[in-house]
Design a protein that fits this description.
Structural class of chain B: alpha+beta
Strand content of chain B: 15-25%
Order of helices and strands of chain B: HHHEHEEEEEEHHE
Distance between the termini of chain A: 119 Å
Largest sheet of chain B: 5 strands, antiparallel
Shape of chain B: flat
Radius of gyration of chain B: 27 Å
Number of helices of chain B: 6
Oligomer: heterodimer
Shape of chain A: elongated
Largest sheet of chain A: 5 strands, antiparallel
Number of strands of chain B: 8
Radius of gyration of chain A: 30 Å
Strand order of the largest sheet of chain B: 3-2-7-1-8
Strand content of chain A: 15-25%
Chain lengths: ~250, ~220
């Protein structure tokens, strides 16, 4: 009769285990350092550190300058309005022209408006990983904004603004890299779109399943932020940019 | 000998794990938008766009200062401000798309499959290039114009079906608009990839006549 007794690894096996364990830690650390160094090099060359800082400063400086120029333009427009209003009190013809100017200004989006309507918020999905497979579907694009503005007009909106930029006949929604510009103004999410109009008609247009299919699908699948709510006493600012009319002549 | 071979195997696996751990960690970095993260190329484009806008604003400020002075003098001399009012009306009629207009520009002819979203994108691109007045066939595009799908071969513009082939006419700085839409990688180039059977032709036009919107006629 032979009895076997369960024993632990022999001295040779224990030695091998010790060697292996002793190698795991430095090898893992080494792998970590190699990968981190490699990716760090890639990022540094991509970001082109040397040029980005002055270019970013220049972009911010130009945006600040634009805000100041717009304020000057508004001031001059108010001064001209005051002169014309004064002249209108002295002459019937001036008064009639003053009425036509005001009517055209309302149609052009040069007057601020207050009223009921809907508020739409569009935002990137929360906490998306930078290397996510569906990153493109999880973030806002300029075409999402043009689609939303199109739906608002379709729903009978009388005025629309995106992050306080009034949408007018010269408005373009422009995308460079991940930065979006509306009326030449730099913007980033969340985008707050305000549309003035009959609430039931506007909500009907946004709720229509045939409208904004792509945005609604990305909201449901990727978590894109998209919400439409009724809003009261919305303030839509006047357009404050240039009225560039150099080539078109009215007939 | 066995110890050495086992150790090497463990080291290789551990090295691989280290690389994987970094890759996984990096993929968990949260996406963020920041001007600082844009490429130098994108930043240069943004700066050019901001500069153009600011130059337009400066031009208008200069022009408006002269107009304010002229109107002040005119009112002070008892002549009223009729000339300034008429000038302003002419400018606003164009800007609000409330009258028929004439001027130089470009036309973009689209013959074949196309859709309302592409039409909206093209209008957006033309506006970005400084178009002052736009029409799709004979339908004038206004500040509140919208585009929708229509019956086969048509695109709905402001509720009216506009049948293809479509010609978008845009009055503005001809060369700027032409380059903007035809440049390599530009909107027409993208359309040619998306709609390979559709023909796109862009031409410079010395004079374009665009009708007033139906509501303003």
């Amino acid at each position: 009769m032979t009895a076997t007794v369960a024993t632990g690894p022999g001295p040779a096996q224990r030695d091998r285990l010790k060697h292996a364990v002793a190698l795991i830690l430095p090898a893992t650390l080494f792998g970590f350092l190699v990968a981190a160094q490699w990716q760090g090099q890639q990022e540094r060359s991509t970001l082109a550190v040397r040029y980005n800082a002055p270019l970013t400063d220049a972009a911010f400086a130009l945006q600040n300058e634009q805000n100041s120029l717009k304020a000057q333009l508004q001031d001059l427009r108010k001064r001209l309005d005051a002169i014309q209003a004064n002249a209108a009190t002295q002459s019937g013809a001036s008064s009639e022209l003053e009425g036509r100017i005001l009517d055209l200004k309302v149609k052009a989006g040069l007057t601020a408006l207050v009223g009921d309507g809907v508020a739409i918020q569009l935002d990137d999905a929360r906490g998306i990983a930078a290397g996510a497979k569906d990153l493109d579907k999880s973030i806002c694009h300029s075409t999402d904004l043009t689609d939303i503005i199109n739906t608002a007009w379709r729903g009978g909106a009388s005025a629309v603004a995106v992050n306080d930029q009034r949408i007018v006949s010269s408005t373009s929604v422009y995308c460079v890299g991940s930065t979006i510009m509306v009326n030449g103004t730099l913007m980033s999410p969340p985008f707050n779109i305000q549309a003035l109009g009959i609430q039931s008609q506007l909500l009907g247009a946004f709720d229509d399943p045939a409208q904004l299919r792509d945005i609604k699908l990305r909201r449901d699948v990727q978590g894109l932020g998209f919400r439409v709510t009724r809003a009261s006493a919305i303030h839509i600012p006047a357009y404050d940019g240039a009225l560039t009319v150099r080539n078109a002549i009215p007939r | 000998m066995r110890t050495s071979a086992g150790g090497v195997a463990v080291a290789v696996v551990a090295l691989f794990l280290g690389v994987l751990a970094v890759a996984q960690f990096r993929s968990q970095d949260v996406y963020s938008r920041s001007l600082q993260l844009e490429t130098p190329s994108s930043l240069t484009t943004l700066i050019a766009s901001l500069s153009d806008r600011n130059n337009s604003l400066r031009d208008e400020i200069f022009d408006l200062r002269l107009r304010v002075e002229s109107a002040q003098d005119s009112v002070a001399n008892g002549r009223g401000s009729l000339a300034e009012s008429e000038r302003q009306i002419a400018q606003l009629k164009v800007f609000a798309a409330q009258s028929a207009v004439r001027g130089p520009g470009i036309s973009v002819r689209i013959d074949g499959q196309f859709d309302e979203r592409a039409m909206s994108d093209l209008v957006n691109e033309l506006r970005n290039a400084g178009a002052e007045a736009i029409a799709a066939n004979d339908q004038r595009i206004g500040p509140r114009s919208w585009f929708g799908p229509g019956p086969a071969g048509t695109i709905t513009v402001d509720g009216a079906a506009v049948r293809g082939p479509w010609t978008l006419k845009a009055i503005g700085a001809t060369d700027v608009m032409y380059v903007a839409v035809t440049r390599t990688g530009g909107i027409v180039g993208q359309f040619e990839l998306i709609y390979p059977k559709t023909r796109f032709s862009v031409t410079k036009e010395p004079t374009l006549d665009l009708a007033a919107p139906a509501a303003a006629r």
